[in-house]
Specification:
The structure holds 2 protein chains of 2 kinds. By secondary structure, chain A is α/β, with parallel strands linked by helices. Chain A has helices at residues 24-38, 41-55, 65-71, 89-102, 116-128, 138-143, 145-153, 168-181, 199-207, 209-222, 238-244, 273-276, 314-322, 332-346, 352-359, 384-391, and strands spanning 10-11, 14-15, 61-63, 74-79, 107-112, 131-137, 157-161, 186-189, 229-233, 254-262, 278-282, 285-289, 325-331, 371-376. In chain A, a hairpin with a 2-residue loop joins strand 11 (278-282) and strand 12. In chain B, helix 2 (30-39) packs parallel to helix 13 and helix 7 (107-117) packs across helix 8 (129-143). The chains are: A alpha/beta, B alpha/beta. The A-B interface holds A 8, 16-22, 24-26, 163-164, 169-170, 173, 176-177, 180-184, 278-284, 291, 293-297 and B 51-56, 58-59, 62, 66, 69, 74-76, 98-105, 125-128, 130-131, 149-152, 154-156, 159, 174, 177-179, 182. Chain A: Belongs to the TrpB family.
Chain lengths: 395, 255
C-alpha cells in the first residue's frame, strides 16, 4: 500500500486542497514549485548546514537506561528537545523560510497555539531578516505570556485572533484570512502536517530528518536500524510524521501515535481525534476531525496546548484508517505523571506534549529484547507553570 | 431549467442579489427576511448556512454565523424552515456555506433537499473545482442544482475558462483579493480586472461580489457586470426588532 501522497495531493481518501478560490493561486504556486525547490542541491546544502550549525543537529538518540530497566526493554529517546528553541518545530520553519525566499516572498505569517511554532517562525524570520506576523488566539496569548514576549523580542508582530473560540483553530483561520488578503508577497508557514496539499507533504519532508537520523543512530547503538516500536504524540502530527517517515515502509516497525484524551475520551474535554472524530474537512484538507452531526468543529481540550487541536493531518488519517499506525489516547493525568517520572528517572523535564508519548510505555507489554524509540519532541521549560500547579511545587 | 437560469435568460443587467445568514438575528427570521427582500426588489437571494470556521469571511459574517449557531441553526433545520419557501418567495434562491457541512449532510441528500424545497443553486467557496467535476457534478446535474464558482483577480485565464465550462448559471467575480466585508476600492487595478474578464467573452454572465456595500459600489459593479451581490453591508443593517422595516430602508438606499 502507498502511505505517501499521490499526484492529486491525496493519502488514500484523505488530503486534497479544500480552499476558496482566493487562496488557490498561492497554494498552486507552492504546489508547482515545492518539490523542485526542495530537491535542488543548493537548497539541500543550505538546509542541512543550518540544521547542523544553527539548530544543533543531529539531535542525540539517547538510551534511557533507568527508564529501560523500569519497563524491561531498550528505550531510546530522540532528543528533539535539545534543538534550538526547544522543540522539533524549528526543522520545519528553517525549511519553509528557505523555500519562501526562493519564491521571492517578503512577508511571513504563521499561526500558533502554545507559541512554540510562533517562536520557531519568529526565530527564522529574525535569522533571515523577513517581516513576521504571528496569529495567536486571544485566550492563548493570556495563557502563554513568556512565548508572546519571546516572539515580540524576536521582532514578530503578534496578532490576537478574537473570532470563534479564540484558540489555535481560530488563529489558523485568521492566518488563512490574512493570506487571502495578501496573496502576492506573503508566505504562510503552517506549523504542522495539516492544511491544503502540498503542506502536509512539505512539512512531513522537513520533519523527516528525525527518522532519517534515528535509523543511522540506532544502527550505531544496536547494529540494527529498525526498532520494534516508534512512539510519538499527535496534535496535528508533525513530530510524529517526522518520527514515522522513514519507518513507514518498514512494516515490521510498529508505529504508535499518542493523542490527548484530556480529562478522558468520554468526558467532553478531550482532543482524542481518531476516537471521537469523523471524516470531514478542516483548514483545507479532508481528514478526521471532531465535529457535531451538523459538521461544526468541536472545541478540543488537552492540558498540553500543542495537542489541543480538533483534527489530525491527512497522512495520519490514512495511517489510522489503513491500520498501519496504532492511534491511542493518554489522559492529562497520565501524561503529567509520565513527565514527572522521566524527570526523576533520567533528569529530563519533557514538554507535556512529549509526556503523552512517554505515558504510553506504561500500557505496553514489552519484552527485554524489544527496542522502542520515543520522540521527545520538546523540552518542558515552557510548561513549568502547569507542572508547578499540578504537582503543587509552589513552595 | 431552474429559476436562476430562467432569470438570467430574461434579465441581463442590473441584477441585485442579497446575502444573509440563516438563523440570524433570530433563529426563525430566515423566511421573514427572504420575503422582505423579494418585496423590496431583490432579484435573487443567497441564504448562508453557518459554519464554525468560515475562512473566506470577514468579521460581520463571522459574527452572524456565530450568532446563528448559538441560536441553534443547522443545515437540517434550515431545510425544515425552507419547506414553505415557495409558498412565499418566487425569486431564485441560492444556499451558501462551507463544504464540511454539506459533506456531513451528504452531497446527494443536500441536492435532493434543495430541489424539494425549491433552492436553485449553491455557492460552496471551499469546494475545489476538480473535486466538484470528478465527484459531485453528476449529482448536481441530476437534481438540476447550479453550482456557482468564484473568480478572483489572481485567477488565471486557463482556470477561468474551465470555470466557465463547468458553470450553468453565473460566475461570481470576487472584486478584490480579500475576505468578505472589505470595502471595494475602485482602483485602476480593479477596473482593469473587470475589463479583462469582460473581454474574455465568457458564456456565463458575471455577478460582482465582496466589497459591494452601497449605491455607489453597486452602480459601479453594474457597469462591468450583469449585477452585484451585497452581503456584509446588508447583514450589518438588519435590525433584530424591526426586520421588515430595516430591510426596506436598506433596499431603498441601493435602488
Amino acid at each position: 500500500m502507498n502511505y505517501f501522497v499521490d499526484e492529486r495531493g491525496y493519502y488514500g481518501e484523505f488530503g486534497g486542497a479544500y480552499i476558496p478560490e482566493m487562496l488557490y493561486p498561492n497554494v498552486e504556486e507552492l504546489r508547482r514549485n515545492y518539490l523542485h525547490i526542495i530537491n535542488e542541491p543548493s537548497f539541500q546544502e543550505e538546509f542541512k548546514q543550518l540544521l547542523k550549525d544553527y539548530v544543533g543537529r543531529p539531535s542525540p538518540l539517547y538510551l534511557a537506561k533507568r527508564l529501560s530497566k523500569k519497563y524491561g526493554a531498550n528505550i531510546f529517546l530522540k532528543r528533539e528537545d535539545l534543538n534550538h528553541t526547544g522543540a522539533h518545530k524549528i526543522n520545519n520553519t528553517i525549511g519553509q523560510i528557505l523555500l519562501a525566499e526562493k519564491l521571492g516572498k517578503k512577508r511571513i505569517i504563521a499561526e500558533t497555539g502554545a507559541g512554540q511554532h510562533g517562536v520557531a517562525t519568529a526565530t527564522v524570520c529574525a535569522l533571515r531578516g523577513l517581516e513576521c506576523v504571528v496569529y495567536m488566539g486571544e485566550i492563548d496569548i493570556k495563557r502563554q505570556a513568556p512565548n508572546v514576549a519571546r516572539m515580540k523580542m524576536l521582532g514578530a508582530k503578534v496578532m490576537a485572533a478574537t473570532s470563534g473560540s479564540k484558540t489555535l483553530k481560530d488563529a489558523t483561520n485568521e492566518a488563512m484570512r490574512d493570506w487571502i488578503n495578501n496573496p502576492v508577497d506573503t508566505h504562510y508557514i503552517i506549523g504542522s502536517v495539516v492544511g491544503p496539499h502540498p503542506y502536509p507533504d512539505m512539512v512531513a519532508q522537513f520533519q523527516s530528518i528525525i527518522s532519517f537520523e534515528t535509523k543511522k543512530q540506532l544502527k550505531e547503538h544496536t547494529g540494527n536500524e529498525l526498532p520494534d516500536y516508534v512512539l510519538a504524540c499527535v496534535g496535528g502530527g508533525s513530530n510524529a510524521m517526522g518520527m514515522f517517515y522513514h519507518f513507514i515502509d518498514d512494516e515490521s516497525v510498529k508505529l504508535i501515535a499518542i493523542e490527548a484524551a484530556g480529562k478522558g475520551v468520554d468526558s467532553g474535554f478531550s482532543a482524542a481525534t481518531t476516537t471521537l472524530g469523523r471524516e470531514g474537512v478542516l483548514h483545507g484538507s479532508k481528514s478526521i476531525l471532531m465535529q457535531t452531526n451538523d459538521g461544526q468543529v468541536v472545541e478540543p481540550h488537552s492540558i498540553s496546548a500543542g495537542l489541543d487541536y480538533p483534527g489530525i493531518g491527512p497522512q495520519h488519517a490514512h495511517l489510522f484508517k489503513s491500520g498501519r499506525g496504532q492511534y491511542v489516547a493518554i489522559t492529562d493525568d497520565e501524561a503529567m505523571n509520565a513527565g514527572l517520572l522521566l524527570t526523576q528517572y533520567e533528569g529530563i523535564i519533557p514538554a507535556i506534549e512529549s509526556a503523552h508519548a512517554l505515558a504510553q510505555l506504561e500500557k505496553m507489554q514489552l519484552n527485554p529484547s524489544d527496542t522502542v524509540v520515543v520522540c521527545l519532541s520538546g523540552r518542558g521549560d515552557k510548561d513549568m507553570d502547569t507542572y508547578m500547579k499540578y504537582f503543587d511545587l509552589q513552595d | 431549467m431552474n429559476r436562476l437560469q430562467q432569470l438570467f435568460q430574461h434579465k441581463k443587467k442590473d441584477l441585485l442579489s442579497i446575502y444573509f445568514t440563516a438563523g440570524y438575528p433570530n433563529l426563525n427570521d430566515t423566511l421573514k427576511i427572504a420575503q422582505a427582500l423579494e418585496q423590496n426588489g431583490a432579484d435573487f437571494l443567497e441564504i448562508g448556512f453557518p459554519y464554525s470556521d468560515p475562512v473566506a469571511d470577514g468579521p460581520v459574517i463571522q459574527q452572524s454565523s456565530k450568532t446563528a449557531l448559538d441560536n441553534g441553526m443547522t443545515l437540517a433545520l434550515l431545510f425544515e424552515q425552507l419547506e414553505d419557501l415557495r409558498k412565499q418567495v418566487t425569486v431564485p434562491v441560492l444556499l451558501m456555506g462551507y463544504v464540511n457541512v454539506v459533506l456531513q449532510y451528504g452531497v446527494e441528500n443536500f441536492c435532493k433537499k434543495c430541489l424539494e424545497v425549491g433552492v436553485d443553486g449553491c455557492i460552496i467557496p471551499d469546494l475545489p473545482m476538480y473535486e466538484y467535476e470528478e465527484l459531485y457534478q453528476p449529482v448536481f446535474k441530476k437534481y438540476g442544482i447550479s453550482n456557482i464558482f468564484l473568480v478572483t483577480p489572481q485567477t488565471t485565464e486557463e482556470h477561468i475558462r474551465k470555470i466557465d465550462e463547468l458553470s450553468n448559471a453565473f460566475i461570481y467575480l470576487v472584486s478584490s483579493s480579500s475576505t468578505t466585508g472589505n470595502s471595494l476600492e475602485l482602483s485602476n487595478q480593479a477596473t482593469q480586472y473587470f475589463q479583462h474578464i469582460s473581454a474574455l467573452k465568457l458564456k456565463n454572465p458575471q455577478i460582482i461580489g465582496f466589497g459591494i456595500s452601497d449605491k455607489n459600489t453597486y452602480d459601479t459593479a453594474n457597469t462591468y457586470a450583469s449585477g452585484a451581490i451585497i452581503g456584509s453591508a446588508f447583514v450589518k443593517n438588519i435590525d433584530a426588532n424591526h426586520i421588515e422595516e430595516s430591510v426596506k430602508n436598506f433596499m431603498k438606499k441601493i435602488r
